[in-house]
Amino acid sequence: MHSTHLLLEEPIRMASILEPSKPSFFPAMTKIVGTLGSKSRSVEVISACLKAGMSVARFDFSWGDVDYHQETLENLKAAIKSTKKLCAVMLDTVGPELQVVNKSEKAISLEADTLVVLTPDQEQEASSQLLPINFMKPGDTIFIGQYLFTGSETTSVWLEVAELKGDDVVCKIKNTATLTGSLFTLHISQIHVDLPTLTEADKSVISTWGVRNKIDFLSLSYTRHAEDVRQARKFLSKLGDLYQTQIFAKIENVEGLTHFDEILQEADGVILSRGNLGIDLPPEKVFLFQKAAVYKCNMAGKPAVVTRVVDSMTDNLRPTRAEATDVANAILDGSDAILLGAETLRGLYPVETISIVGRICYEAEKVFNQDLYFKKTVKYVGEPMTHLESIASSAVRAAIKVKASVIICFTSSGRAARLIAKYRPTMPVLSVVIPRLKTNQLRWSFSGAFEARQSLIVRGLFPMLADPRHPAESTSATNESVLKVALDHGKASGLIKSHDRVVVCQKVGDASVVKIIELED
């Protein structure tokens, strides 16, 4: 791991730490995924979340019905319209998740050294003596002496299996805890759950809610093998526009970790679910997995998303010192995005959480050693480079040498812009997506909207959808026309100023061109 470690930019003056940060149009290059729920589903709160820096809205279907989430999504659309801020939509599947079911939602107090029974009979009411679970025949998998964990983000209980009584599992409670909520994930360390990764319930939600709302991302919970991703993609390919939906593999257990390389090849991105994975892994190994996984994602040019960073902000206005440092280290490792779960889903301070996490990301990005990262990436890619890889790395190198304020990339698929972002330029990359006219033999439509929104999870990439009246075919007149619109957009947003240098990456005929322009008054 030593060879992949990224140091801070040197030297850092201690006095500079106390200097206030300069205001920026983009508060951070790192993207923030916010989970919308009970405390963050009104138009007003969602609007504030968008302004604070949320660029992807996550809908967690492990709770709430389709109608509930549809109402939230309609509020998101209204917020996008009023704030004029783009936001992508991520559907998070339930997957083969084992859960403790608390239908009454009453707090459950569990006392250390007492016994509690886990039962597959979900009609029973949860109590301090009985916990219903959604796992049929647990006795076939669980053994005496095994450890189980359940709880919420900040409170968990450790159970030891003491006895098996038919389908019921009698456990000794190892620590005192109070569980609040309706569902708690049940973690059984290092076992294979013989359930499909994409369940029938997941398929139903995707084929109805997902199709209706043309989801941008599918978060595939408990991805264990590359075949899981292939099966999910095969399913999406039959659902109209969802063939364009990107699949993010959620790594949540040792099985997924073991097959990480093959999963990364198949997935469009990876979510490191540190909460669940932290149960399967020894605590001292979690950081090592994060660094190795993020590095592999970086070199593959695929987004790495890190979860469970500021759990304490579910109930508190400020993160702990350890959490603030954890967020910064995730950025220095090379993460593309931070995913907030309970902090925005049911936390008391969703807007403040997004804002604070964004500010921490911004500070970490300022000292990210881009020069070392660039050299490592070029060395990893090796020679000969592909045509696109060469253009992307050249654009970033040129932009840094001339101190450009922005890189503008013309793209139709989004691939060229993502490759530029792979090299982590110190300035924003404005991805100008050129729509393409396509047909399914029944109707004509323009592509481009999916590609634009899907860049909202890539570090440093900011999309702009060009006017569909501009043809995808590259001509000198078209390029100049779209470039003028992009520059005007940059000026209006405060991203570009007079006399700034801008690096432009575009196609001219059959050739790919990187050019540097200096703006006049």
Description:
This protein is of the alpha/beta class and 521 residues long. It has three domains: 24-94 and 197-366, Phosphoenolpyruvate-binding domains (TIM Barrel, Alpha-Beta Barrel); 99-188, M1 Pyruvate Kinase, Domain 3, CATH 2.40.33.10; 370-518, 3-Layer(aba) Sandwich (Pyruvate Kinase, Chain: A, domain 1). It is 35% helix and 24% strand. The protein has 16 helices and 24 strands. The protein has helices spanning 43-52, 66-83, 200-213, 226-236, 254-258, 260-266, 274-280, 283-300, 321-333, 342-345, 350-366, 370-381, 387-401, 415-422, 449-454, 476-493; strands at 31-35, 54-60, 88-92, 99-101, 108-110, 115-119, 130-132, 147-151, 156-165, 168-173, 177-179, 183-188, 217-220, 246-251, 269-272, 304-307, 337-340, 406-411, 429-433, 436-439, 444-447, 461-465, 501-508, 511-518. The strands form five sheets. It has an eight-stranded parallel barrel, surrounded by seven helices. Strands 4-12-8-9-10-6-7 form a seven-stranded mixed β-sheet. It has a five-stranded mixed β-sheet with strand order 22-19-18-23-24, sandwiched between helices. A hairpin with a 2-residue loop joins strand 23 (501-508) and strand 24 (511-518). Helix 1 packs parallel to helix 11, helix 6 runs parallel beside helix 8 and helix 9 (321-333) crosses helix 11 (350-366). It starts with 30 loop residues before the first strand and ends with a strand. Mean pLDDT is 89; it is low at 1-5. Residues 30-354 form the Pyruvate kinase barrel domain. Residues 389-509 form the Pyruvate kinase C-terminal domain. Its main location: cytoplasm. It catalyses: pyruvate + ATP = phosphoenolpyruvate + ADP + H(+). Pathway: Carbohydrate degradation; glycolysis; pyruvate from D-glyceraldehyde 3-phosphate: step 5/5.
